[in-house]
């Protein structure tokens, strides 16, 4: 028993050291530049793949060469990323860096798939690092010992650099107070590329040694990035010491749980993260840093049309959408209806996020939580409570709203980047719970669910329906299309109405200037929480509708990539407009549809487009007309009519 | 409660509107506000001066609720407001003016004022109404908004985006927003910082014109301006009240000259 405990501790320490190297770069990058680098996991994976490319042709001994060459290459990639994508965004709200690096995740991850293909491969280790040795009574693998010793030495070297060199001094000073460093006449901006490159190299280094320990696979980046965030938050954003303590702690806790209480693996670290964010948002060793300014850029003011035209255009769009099912099977395949249903549901989901993100400035990185909640609430209701779709949807909305209130109650007191992190933690907690609970069907999820539209056993099953008028066939799928479209239009009108009310106007004032809103007498936390509840309920409705139609729910609904994708849609379309995100969802799925015809790696293209959007068109597609107008008309573009802006919402979907 | 000895107050002595009782604020080991007993009469124009780091802004933050007090109490209109939130204090009648950039830049001028106007009577509407009834259908609120727009002379640009206003109009708007919350006491933290002489003059005239009925509490670096405007002056130094009195008394005070004015001349 003692032996197995020390064995587990030893394994935990091994993983812990890898985490330390990974989190150190992430944390220092945040400390100095206030960039939350989602792509850090991909740089980690890239390191392992570069090493693989070097080791495979030359055999195991090349491992030692790769151990230095691959991080160097990844470091160069890091410098390039900083210079060409991150740099244009300094001065904007730090949340844009989250969006940007999320786009880079899609790009780099797909590049890895493209070059090295799917599936996992093992990274050959050199012969000297195989076998086992006895240390203090533990039968330890040489490779693990190597990781601990070598990784530890590496961390020590980084620490010494930060502590004892002039370079390190400037970085540490910069992470405490950037402005002060600038005032001292030091051009800290020059150090940014270097810091980013160093962080990337450290991540690559971690990727290589873990690759030799486990295997190398395209998913390895995605699987470490969330634990890395947990570590950085636990230790304190920007603190190297925090990264070390947090990394070792998370490595050991995770390994011990896997050995002794597997049911809690994946739950405990997120609970820890939430607790730390609530009681000590700066983390264990974090220092107080200034919250970065910079506004979220909305798509309002982008339109050139007056209100009346917009209303007509919106009505025309809805009318056009209503015609879609009529041509299915004749003008185009019935698949078009299925695709449109997906766009409508995601449009609703994106709209729900826009309501909090675009109107109150709360960037939720865990909105998939509510989508997943809605989906599972419908599935569980239909399986165990009632087969009525109405009951299921009502419960989905209620449960999502209730959980949103709870999450909002805990999360909204922490602002900005911390709010993004805590919502991410809640979503990951839920995601991991879905895997572990019986009622949610574990990793399989729930499937084969049927329903009827009615109450108390009286109603219709859409599957039984088929209306045929000449060549036009209205199937159950077509009817569901109308239900989804109705839900979207109703949600749009409802939220728009709210935004024109006193409640909505306060939301807009919070987005514009929260401090001012407080000092004209608004308890802004309460308004934000209400907005969050409404948003959560709508996201739950979207998830519920999906399960109602598809008949299944899987844990992937609540995965963080989903949360990221819905943010992509909101930004693509234009935040703060309600209809922009719906357009964003359409473009997202439209692109996917077109691109999958050419390549399985459509996320590469999508990610690239998204990165370009974040850099060059952060106000989204809806701002395009106003941006282009000056070039088209040759003169100054027609200014957006101020009167129309009063509503803040212009036009229909 | 602490009493300040006030001998020569040439203004009609009103009742006390604001009082702090041994107010203390500590940041770790550092005491930013050290047992401050401040009493402000209704209708008074009071200035707070003191060298950098004297704790002027901290005192403001304690009065408006932006920071919680470590010890002591704040009374407004005779009521203990020490533990109330900033927004609740605004509703009790404590307005805070910021420098000009502090408006809702992306919203229209009217919307800026209307939001402030809405804030003070939101309890009159029920929850459902406040969620769904469009803002343009609240007659009383909109009439008040129009009155204030007229008072600050911005009725012609009411539908313009606040960001698009010229400098002077933004300043008017900022003060209009404060006025719309119907404050009894307004706190100004260096309202003329970074302004030219003419701009400073215009701002002060505006404040005196628009906020003629309010009690004013001002932090200001411009000593000449303070001497000219204030009914009474409180001098802070290292978190404590160093002196208090009329402009003449302060000008003649030896301690003030040593600790503050002397330091300023260097």
TrEMBL record, chain A:
<keyword id="KW-0472">Membrane</keyword>
<feature type="transmembrane region" description="Helical">
    <location>
        <begin position="390"/>
        <end position="410"/>
    </location>
</feature>
<dbReference type="InterPro" id="IPR043428">
    <property type="entry name" value="LivM-like"/>
</dbReference>
<feature type="transmembrane region" description="Helical">
    <location>
        <begin position="365"/>
        <end position="383"/>
    </location>
</feature>
<feature type="transmembrane region" description="Helical">
    <location>
        <begin position="48"/>
        <end position="81"/>
    </location>
</feature>
<feature type="transmembrane region" description="Helical">
    <location>
        <begin position="313"/>
        <end position="332"/>
    </location>
</feature>
<feature type="transmembrane region" description="Helical">
    <location>
        <begin position="479"/>
        <end position="499"/>
    </location>
</feature>
<keyword id="KW-0812">Transmembrane</keyword>
<feature type="transmembrane region" description="Helical">
    <location>
        <begin position="93"/>
        <end position="116"/>
    </location>
</feature>
<feature type="transmembrane region" description="Helical">
    <location>
        <begin position="566"/>
        <end position="591"/>
    </location>
</feature>
<feature type="transmembrane region" description="Helical">
    <location>
        <begin position="339"/>
        <end position="359"/>
    </location>
</feature>
<feature type="transmembrane region" description="Helical">
    <location>
        <begin position="136"/>
        <end position="162"/>
    </location>
</feature>
<feature type="transmembrane region" description="Helical">
    <location>
        <begin position="12"/>
        <end position="36"/>
    </location>
</feature>
<feature type="transmembrane region" description="Helical">
    <location>
        <begin position="531"/>
        <end position="554"/>
    </location>
</feature>
<protein>
    <submittedName>
        <fullName>Amino acid/amide ABC transporter membrane protein 1, HAAT family /amino acid/amide ABC transporter membrane protein 2, HAAT family</fullName>
    </submittedName>
</protein>
<feature type="transmembrane region" description="Helical">
    <location>
        <begin position="191"/>
        <end position="213"/>
    </location>
</feature>
<feature type="transmembrane region" description="Helical">
    <location>
        <begin position="225"/>
        <end position="253"/>
    </location>
</feature>
<feature type="transmembrane region" description="Helical">
    <location>
        <begin position="416"/>
        <end position="434"/>
    </location>
</feature>
<feature type="transmembrane region" description="Helical">
    <location>
        <begin position="446"/>
        <end position="473"/>
    </location>
</feature>
<dbReference type="GO" id="GO:0015658">
    <property type="term" value="F:branched-chain amino acid transmembrane transporter activity"/>
</dbReference>
<dbReference type="Pfam" id="PF02653">
    <property type="entry name" value="BPD_transp_2"/>
</dbReference>
<feature type="transmembrane region" description="Helical">
    <location>
        <begin position="603"/>
        <end position="622"/>
    </location>
</feature>
Automatic annotation (TrEMBL), chain B:
<comment type="function">
    <text>Probable component of a branched-chain amino-acid transport system.</text>
</comment>
<dbReference type="Pfam" id="PF00005">
    <property type="entry name" value="ABC_tran"/>
</dbReference>
<dbReference type="GO" id="GO:0006865">
    <property type="term" value="P:amino acid transport"/>
</dbReference>
<dbReference type="InterPro" id="IPR032823">
    <property type="entry name" value="BCA_ABC_TP_C"/>
</dbReference>
<protein>
    <recommendedName>
        <fullName>Probable branched-chain amino acid transport ATP-binding protein LivG</fullName>
    </recommendedName>
</protein>
<dbReference type="GO" id="GO:0005886">
    <property type="term" value="C:plasma membrane"/>
</dbReference>
<keyword id="KW-0547">Nucleotide-binding</keyword>
<dbReference type="InterPro" id="IPR003593">
    <property type="entry name" value="AAA+_ATPase"/>
</dbReference>
<comment type="similarity">
    <text>Belongs to the ABC transporter superfamily.</text>
</comment>
<dbReference type="GO" id="GO:0005524">
    <property type="term" value="F:ATP binding"/>
</dbReference>
<dbReference type="InterPro" id="IPR027417">
    <property type="entry name" value="P-loop_NTPase"/>
</dbReference>
<dbReference type="GO" id="GO:0016887">
    <property type="term" value="F:ATP hydrolysis activity"/>
</dbReference>
<keyword id="KW-0067">ATP-binding</keyword>
<dbReference type="Pfam" id="PF12399">
    <property type="entry name" value="BCA_ABC_TP_C"/>
</dbReference>
<keyword id="KW-0029">Amino-acid transport</keyword>
<keyword id="KW-0813">Transport</keyword>
<dbReference type="InterPro" id="IPR003439">
    <property type="entry name" value="ABC_transporter-like_ATP-bd"/>
</dbReference>
<dbReference type="InterPro" id="IPR051120">
    <property type="entry name" value="ABC_AA/LPS_Transport"/>
</dbReference>
<feature type="domain" description="ABC transporter">
    <location>
        <begin position="18"/>
        <end position="263"/>
    </location>
</feature>
